[in-house]
Amino acid sequence: MGAAHLLCFCTHLFLIVQQSSGQTQKTPAEWDSRQADQFPNPLLNNTKCQVSSPMRICDPNSVLPSQTREASNNLLKSIEGLVILGDPSDKKCLCSRDCPQPTIIMIVALMKCLNKDVHDQWVETKEIAEKFRELWKLDDCSVILASANDNNKYYLNPGKAVVGFLTSNVTDAINNQVNKTFMDGKLASGIELTVGYYSQALNDTVMVETTSQGGDPSPATGAFSAIVIILVVVLGILIVAILIFIYRKHRQAQVQKDLKKKESSANKETELQVLKPEA
Predict the structure, then answer these.
(1) Each residue of 57-88: pLDDT tens digit?
(2) Cα gap 191→109, rounded to integer Å
(3) How far apart are CA 152 and CA 71, in angstroms?
(4) Under the phi-then-psi rule, with left for phi > 0, alpha for psi from -120 to 50, and beta for the rest, what region is 254?
(5) Cβ neighbour number for residue 188 with a 10 Å cutoff
(6) Spatial CA neighbour of 102 closest among 215, 218, 202
(7) Three-class HEC string of 188-222
(8) Rounded to two decimals, what is the model's pTM?
(9) What is the sign, positive or negative, of the torsion defined by CA atoms of 101, 168, 199, 159?
(10) Which end of the chain, N or C, is less packed with Cβ atoms under 10 Å?
(11) Closest alpha carbon to 99 in 86, 111, 108, 110
(12) In the 3-class helix/strand/coil scheme, how is the chain assigned residue by residue?
């Protein structure tokens, strides 16, 4: 019995040492860039992210309700069918995957709050997002969103290929559009808006790129062509109407001129008859 108790005590002691060594480390509730490596990586299908695989959102602190989290995760996955076009003559791939037509991927990291000793919360959120991009080896066709819910701070970080494809004006405009929603703490709505704006921007740019490469025209191009055709037709009608008007005026003037000639001839004949001596 003594040996059994000793074995039980040693096993219990081993488990305590294991826990204190960090192998069962609890996920922090407060974050800063120094702890970025402790945040679960959703691309590794980490169960701490609390969503079904494949994971595009990670919420270890349960910032969002379970159903909302799953809905946001599905929404983030829906954008991945959109292709970032590159120069067909350039054999260098824009990204490390899906070449030669890489698709966008969007990752969201939700933190409960930042550490209280953080001096500049916005800068810290930005540094955390950039740290996640580095740690998770996200390529240039990705967009990462890091949010600290209790601090109402977020940072939207598009990769270089995304910015290059859409232009910085477009990505900055998207950030401005979603800013108030995130600052108001409406995370799910902010994620939905972000996905929606990026989807729209990518679709619009793909339309323009396809048209320039000889593909189907975009709706904007089709509308412009229709307007040009209508203007040409209207202009043609106006020109015909003006020509008809000029012709009629000219014809009327000619008729009046002919009548005057006839009247003049008739008057001359009358005068001659009057002046002619009687036989």
Answers:
(1) 999 999 999 999 999 999 998 888 776 665 54
(2) 11
(3) 21
(4) alpha
(5) 16
(6) 202
(7) HHHHHHHHHHHHHHHHHHHHHHHHHCCCCCCHHHH
(8) 0.62
(9) positive
(10) C
(11) 86
(12) CHHHHHHHHHHHHHHHHHHHCCCCCCCCCEECHHHHHHCCCHHHCCHHHCCCCCCCEECCCCCCCHHHHHHHHHHHHHHHHCECCCCCCCCCCCCCCCCCCCECEEEEEEECEECCCCCCHHHHHHHHHHHHHHHCCCCCCEEEEEEEHHHCEEEEEECHHHHHHHCHHHHHHHHHHHHHHHHCCCHHHHHHHHHHHHHHHHHHHHHHHHHHCCCCCCHHHHHHHHHHHHHHHHHHHHHHHHHHHHHHHHHHHHHHHHHHHHHHHHHHHHHHHHHCCCC
Report DSSP state, residue 96.
Answer: S
Q: How many residues does this entry show for the chain?
A: 279
CA dihedral over 112, 60, 21, 34, signed as positive or negative: negative
Rounded CA-CA distance 206/67 in Å is 33
Alpha helices in 80-186 (DSSP H): 121-135, 160-166, 168-183
Q: Which amino acid is at 149?
A: N
Which residue has tokens 């910085």? Answer: 168
Largest CA distance in the chain: 177
Read off the tokens for 214: 């000889």
DSSP output for 160-181: HHHHHHH-HHHHHHHHHHHHHH
| pLDDT tier at 212, thresholds 50, 70, 90 | very low
> What's at 104, amino acid-wise?
I
Instruction: Name residue 166's amino acid.
Output: L
Looking at 92-106, 189-203, 223-237, which range is the least confident one?
Answer: 92-106
